[in-house]
Structure formats: C-alpha cells, structure tokens
Amino acid sequence: MNNTGDARARVVLSLRATPKGALHYDRGAPAVPAASPEWHASPSDWTCVLEEVTSEMDRAKAQSLARLTRDWQRVLSLSGRSDELEVTLGPWPPTTPTPGPRSDPPSVQDEVQKSTPPAPVAARRKSSPRLSPVPRTGSPLYGWTSPVDQQLRQAERARQVDRDRVVMAHRQRVAQVQVAFDQASRHQYQAQSETRMADLARKTQERLRVEAEAEAERAAETRRLAVARQEAEDKRRRQVQAQMEAAEADEKVAQAEKAEKAEKAQAAFQAFRSECQKWVELILKAEKALQAAAAPVQAQSPALAPFLAQRKQDLPQLKQFLQTGTLPSPATLSQARDSHAQLERLLRDLSVASQQFQKEQAEAQAEAQAEAARPPALVPKTPPPPTVSAPPPVPVVVSIEPQSRPTPTAPATPSSATSQLAREISASNRAKFDALVTFKANWLDHLRAFMSDPAHKSFRFSCQKAVNTPVNALNANSSSHLRQKLDHLQALLRGQGLEVTGQAFNASIHPMGIPFCKYILAKKLVDQGSDVISAKPDAAFGVAQVIVSLWAEFGDFGQLILATAYEVCPYLVPYHKQKPPQQDSTAYYQSLGYQLTNEGSLEKQDLYVKRMAGIARLYAAVTITALPKDQLGQADHPHGVGYAWCWLSSELNLNPVNDVTATLIQVILEVSGHKLAEMFGKMFLKLVVTLSRRYLPLIKKATIEGSGGPVERLETTLSKIMSTGQVEPPPGLLSLGFI
After folding, report:
1. Which distant-in-sequence residues (6+ apart) come within 8 Å of 555 by Cβ?
2. pTM: predicted TM-score of the whole model, two decimal places
3. DSSP state string for 53-91
4. Would you place residue 572 in the very low, low, confident or very high pLDDT band (cuts 50, 70, 90)?
C-alpha cells in the first residue's frame, strides 16, 4: 500500500506542476485557486482532470496488484503449496465468482477504445466522459483496505465474471458456429457429391450420345459407301451395256456396210454383166446393120467393117462370161471398154447414113412418081416433102467420158440447181424458210404505215416500254417473279389494261397496237439469246418459258419468233447459205447474221460464233421447256423436242461450216440431249455414233487451223455420250410446274 500512496503523491505533485495550478482534495476547498478565472469559466476541465487522475490511479493499482501477485506466487512456491490455489487480492478469503446474467460480448468499438492509449488532456477536453468520484487517501495501515481498493476488487471480480460469461458465450457461439459449419460442410459435400454425380451422369449420357451419333454416322457412311459401290457397279454395268450396245451397233453398221458393199459389188457386177450383154448385142447388131446396109451406105462408113472384124474376136470370151460368169481377160475387158463408145459412134454414123440413104431413095422415088403423074405442061416449082420412114431404134448407152463442169456464168440447169440446193438447204426446210420469210414480210408491210406515222410516236413508245420493261427483268430466280413478268406480257398481248411507267395503258386502243407489240416482243426475246444468253447460259430457260407460254396461246407470235431467229441465225433452219457471184461480201455476211461494228467493219469471228451459240441455246431450251401449270392439258407444246431431232438430222445432210457447225451441234446436244435420249433411246445413240464416226471427220476437214476449240468440245461430248449412254440435264433447267 505504500507504493500506492507514493504513486498518489507523484500524481498530485505532477498535477500541481501543471499550468493549471495546484489542486486540492479537501472537501469544501476550491479545486482551482480563485486567482485563476479559467477554471471557474470552464467546469468541464474538472472532468478531464478527474479522468486523468482516475486513469493514473488505475494504472498504479494494476502495477501494484501485479507485484503482489508475483510475490504471492513466489511465497507459494517456497511453502510448497499448489499452484492451483486462487490468488487473493487482500487478507479476506477468496470469493468465488458467481455467474450473473448473460451479457453480450464487448463490441468492436469497446475493444478499440480499450486498446487505444489515452489521448492528451488538451484533446480530451472536447469529450464529456462520466465523472468518477475521487478517492480519498488516508494514511496506510497494515491490514486495512481502502474503499477504492475494495471497489477495484469488486470491479475486477465483476469484470472477471463478465469475461467468464463472455468466454462461455463465445465458446457456445463457437460450438454453434462449429455445428453450423459442420452441417454446412456436410450439405456442401453432399451438394458437391450430387453435382459430381450429375456431371458424371451428364458426361456419361453425352459420351453415350456421341458414341451413338458416331455409330449412326458409321452406319450412314457404310450405307453411303454401299450405295456408292452399288451406283458404281450399276454405272459400270451401264457402261458395259452401252459398250456392248455400241459394239453391237458398230457390228450392225459394219455388217450393213459390208452388205452395202456386197450389194454394190453385186450391182456393179450385174451392171458390168449388162454392159457386156450390151456389148455383145451391139457387136451383133452392128454386124447385121453392116450386112443389111447397101453398098453406098457402107461406103460412107469405111472404118466400121475392119473395126467390127476386130471386135468379133472378143465375142467368144464375152459370151462365155455371160453364160458362166467367168471374167474375160483384162485385155479383152479393156479393149471392150475402149471400143464401146467408138463402136457406138460408128453405128450411129451407119444409122445416119442409112437414114440419109433411105431418105434420098424415098425422095427419088417420090420425085419419079410425081414426074410420072403430072401433066407435061405443068412443072412444079418445088417438090413436095418426101415421107420419111422412122429410123431403126438405137440403144441407149451411158457414156463413160467425163463431163465438163458448168462455168459460174452459165445459167444453172435444173439438175445443177438441185445439187446446189442440197448443199445449202433441204427442199422441205427451204419451203419452211420461205414461208416464214414471207409471213414476216407481210407482217411488216401491214405495220409499215403505223410505224412511220409521227402521230403515233408516243403510243409506239408506250408499247416499247410495255415490252422492254418486263423482258429486261426476266430471270428464273423465283417462280413468283417469272410468273409476274409472264402475266404482264400475256395481259399486253390479250389487249388487257396494265400499268406502264405509272400510267394506265392498253395496246388494243389502236388496231395496230397488239401486232406491233408482238413484233417488237419477238425481236426483243430473240435478242436476249444473242446478247444475254450468250454470256449467261442459265438465263435461257427463263426466256424459253415465256416464249413457250406465249407461243402456245398466240400462234402468230411463235411464227414471228421463228422467222426472227432464222433471220438472225439461218443455221437454225439449217440453211448454209452460199455466196452468189453477184452479191457483195458484206451483204452476204450480214445475211448470215454477222453484225457491223461502229467503224463499219464486220464483227470478229469469235463474237459471231458466241452470239450464234446463244441463239441456238435459246432455241434448244424452247424445245425442252414444258408449259406452265395453268396451260398443261389445255394446249400442246408448240415446238417440242422433235424439232431438235429434225435439226440434227437435217444438219447431217449438209456440208459443215467452220466453227459454226461444231458449236451449234454441241449446244443442241448439251441442252436437249437428255430429252432426245429419253424420247428416242437407241435411235439417238445411233445418231450420236453417226455424228462421231461419219460427220465429225467432215467437220474437222472443214475447220480452219487454229479454230479447233469447238471441234474438241464436240468430240468430248460425243465420246462421253457413247461411253455412258446418257446425257446430263443442262444446268438451270426449270422443273415441271415451275410457274
């Protein structure tokens, strides 16, 4: 306790040394000298001072208790007592803390305030802590405890009880937290286990699904390979069948050629036999004629007798050939051939001489009779015409001398004109071509006054807009678009009202309106072949669908289409025009479809062939394009695939033309070949074989060096058709009922 008093004394001395002045602890005495007005003016300073004193005393008590505790433990250790004895804070018996009511653990703010060192006095003046009574100090006595110490011990015991309660509550809370943590851990583990099991099940299902898909893909691949193998086998069988059929066809062709050669040989043999028979008859007849002729007649043919004597030497061999068929010696045959014409001329001379002799005899006889019958005084000025008996018949013999060709300036005989026509065009195609040319010429004559009338210029312009607008937008990208353009053109040609450039229009308001629209529409559609389809081949079928539909409804429109196409490309007839001697070269090439450039020269050959191919592709597309759904069963196809067959057959009978023939045959086979094969079957394959083996060499012969591209493409196409026996449908072909 002396230490405690010393501490108090030090505190008091330190307080007295402060600037605030001396402090007095006697009751009734002023805490601050009267001479210091600051203390009276600031009552809150008392609180600060008391708080500081109380804190200092608490620290001193704590230090004292710590020293006492150490001393007591040392005494206990020296006396041999147990360390478990409770340390008392004074001479009274130890008290056992009794658990009080449960209090909450100290808050974080209280813990912070406890751990924070006391602030300086100047800083603590701003706060107003609760005032604690200032303990009074007395003189320390042995065994006596001051009330302050008792309060401290009670407060310590209360704090110990609170700490125990807090510890107990903390332990309970920790136990609860541990239980909750264990439960949460179990739940989490169970959830994780369930998640893992679900993931495992999902992965298993995914793996099974992937395996099933892989198995399905393998099965599909196996089936596809089986189908591919079957298709390859079928294709190989078809190829073998086609090769067998081709070989059979070749064999038949060879047999036919052999039979034809045998027939020709037999015919030649029979002709030679007939000729030998004629030779024998001619020699015998000449001998009889010579014997029957009078001496004056024989005198006019002095070479006949020796020549006839020489020819009579060949009679035994010729008669033996006629009886047994054994050919005479080559010398005899050569002499017979050489002497045939000469003997015929000699017989002709003998016949003429005989006729002349008979005529002279008849004239002399008639004159003698007239002279005897007339009166003596009458003398006729001219004798009457004598009666001439018919000469003996002369056998018709074909001369073996070559005949000279007619010069170009000479007029063509009927036989030469027919041969020239056969080189250009067949008779039936010529009649068809002339009929179409006449039809179009009459159509234009009918429109000429209307087309030249300035008063109808605006109406003609509206007609052209009504035609050009839908035709320029023609394409087969969608059926609805193509149907819309076709409906527009059908309404135009039917004379129905429609809208043109935002205004109502009807072509039938003028009598020449619809014919004019048909004419410009036919020309515009044919121009699509040379301008558009030549660069974009797939566009042919959209234009062909419009042509077929309008042609089935308006027959005269179809005739205009054909006439315009034949005029632009006469090879579609087919018509291989030959240049007349009096025609200008430029006019001739223009008649073949060549166009003039801006400079006035003819277009290049490759551009011309490309345009002809576009028109031919459009023509072939027309032959295989079906009617629209609304016209099926109501009208027949106006120009079906049979016309493509007729064109190929007619083309084989004409001399080929460089570039053009190969290109057009290639286009026709590419576009309509599958329909021709479907309709004509083996006949089409025979036609292809004929094209490849007989006509293709002629095309190669007519092809100029450096222009072999079309020929090579045609040869490849023919070889493919003969090897496979099939023709693939062309790209862009519209399905049945597309519109």
Report:
1. 638
2. 0.47
3. HHHHHHHHHHHHHHHHHHHHHHHHHHHT--TTSPPPSSS
4. very high
